[in-house]
Amino acid sequence: MHTIIEPFKIKSVEPVYFTTSQQRENILRKAFYNPFLIQAKDVMIDLLTDSGTSAMSSEQWGGIMRGDESYAGSESFFRFEAAVRNITGMPYIIPTHQGRAAEKIIFSITGGKGKYIVSNTLFDTTRANIEFSGAEGIDLLCAEGKLPSVPAPFKGNIDVDALEQFITTKGARHIPLVIITITNNSGGGQPVSMENIRAAKRVCNKYHIPLFIDACRFAENCYFIKTREPGYANKSILEIAQELFSCADGCTMSAKKDALANIGGFLAMHDEALAMQCRNMLIITEGFPTYGGLAGRDLEAIAIGLNEVMEEPYLKYRIRSIEYIGEKLDAAGVPYIKPTGGHAVYLDAKAFLPHTSPDQYPGQALCGALYTAGGIRGVEIGSVMFGKYGKDGNLIPAGMELVRLAIPRRVYTQSHIDYTTEVIIDVFKQRENITGYKIIYETPYLRHFTARFEPA
Ligand code: F0G
């Protein structure tokens, strides 16, 4: 078999600026050892996120020129609405400026004190919006999802028995909705099977609880269903997506991921009364219902991107290029979550740096080492992001200490990827020399964005 090539040609390029490891050591110190505080020009391979970092196609740039900037009833809105409706089958479609704006709207209406929002795993902004409403976010991930080194096809599945037990224990009236994140970003970008979504829906139906999908990476999830779940090999990605969304009562989406756009999001649902409440909130916080915090040109780029993302040559290249990193890491014995996910590789920092304790934030320390060694920027998904403090003031660590290397869509070539794996392997060979960090400044919500560190 021949090499799978990038299914695109490059028309416009951006420079990558090269730095030495000595320069990067200084930059990292000045950024208080937090990758979020490093200037992008000082990063050589930016794997901080796959969100909003996609390269748009010439079709999307063409759409940008076509964008209708009318305040009300813009043509671009109707093209956007048609694209979302074709995939989700949902009648009420509400544009927002990004995913968390959709979360803010839905959870400020359905959440509140004494309520529980149950998920496979909530992303951090989703959890923050739930908690900000006064409700509590509950993660009920399947058992295999919690074992980083053990491969399984659908490690993003929700534990359906635990879901039913949780509902009967707390009472359905305290659970305004269940939301399943596809793919499961905080748990390794792992997919959820169609069977699992159907099973969760049956439980939700039994207790009259709506099921929502956090659909940020729906196309990647559908590609995994096509290639891993019996019965889907001959279905198109659109058909699989339509079947998947037909199991849901609503969805939130960040168009910065699987809509190949640089900004945008939406909320979609079947319930008219709930949609009216959401629209009223939208008008206060985001904008008129036919633009919702976006320019007409953004809606146009999203409408086109939603269709491009479902093209199979693209998804095949996308998923394969991430698998390829995994194979190179395997050959060198580097620990990561197995199998590789849809949008990222998640290094297992606990296994990578066994000599650092959770309160020395091994994931953060590994991010620092990757940056210094090769100008690679990743993000910690561990006790910096999810750690809490107990009543005694001691850290309650996260379940896993990970470093996510998220691959922007259609941005890097195979040699960028080869370079990245070479740097990771070099760092792995010198792992004994990496020291942990301590926090010297932090905020109460989403502390990982702004926290400052120094070597412990
Ligand atoms: N849900 C999931 C699963 C996400 O991964 C994100 C964002 C959001 C919701 C929020 O969307 O950023 O448009 O407001 N994830 C980005 C990331 C930030 O890096 O994984 P947003």
Question: What report would you give on this structure?
Answer:
This protein has helices spanning 21-30, 58-66, 75-88, 99-110, 124-132, 160-170, 194-206, 218-228, 237-246, 272-285, 296-308, 312-332, 349-352, 362-374, 383-386, 414-429; strands spanning 45-46, 92-96, 116-119, 136-139, 177-181, 211-214, 250-254, 265-269, 344-348, 376-377, 379-381, 388-389, 395-396, 402-406, 437-441, 452-455. By secondary structure, the protein is an alpha/beta fold. The strands form 5 sheets. A 7-stranded mixed beta sheet has the order 2-8-7-6-5-3-4, with helices on both faces. A 3-stranded antiparallel beta sheet has the order 9-14-11. A two-stranded parallel ribbon has the order 1-10. Strand 3, helix 5 and strand 4 form a beta-alpha-beta unit. Helix 14 crosses helix 16. It is globular. It starts with 20 loop residues before the first helix and ends with a strand. The mean pLDDT is 97. Residues 49, 51, 98-100, 123, 125-126, 181, 185, 214, 216, 254, 256, 265 line the site of ligand F0G.
Basic shape: globular
Strand order of the largest sheet: 2-8-7-6-5-3-4
Please name the fourth-level CATH homologous superfamily of the largest domain. Answer: Type I PLP-dependent aspartate aminotransferase-like (Major domain)
Query: What is the radius of gyration?
Result: 21 Å
Tell me the count of domains. 2
Tally of contiguous helical segments: 16
For the biggest sheet, the summary is: 7 strands, mixed
In percent, how much strand structure appears in the residues?
5-15%
Q: Determine the CATH topology of the largest domain.
A: Aspartate Aminotransferase, domain 2
Calculate the terminal CA-CA distance, rounded to whole Å: 49 Å
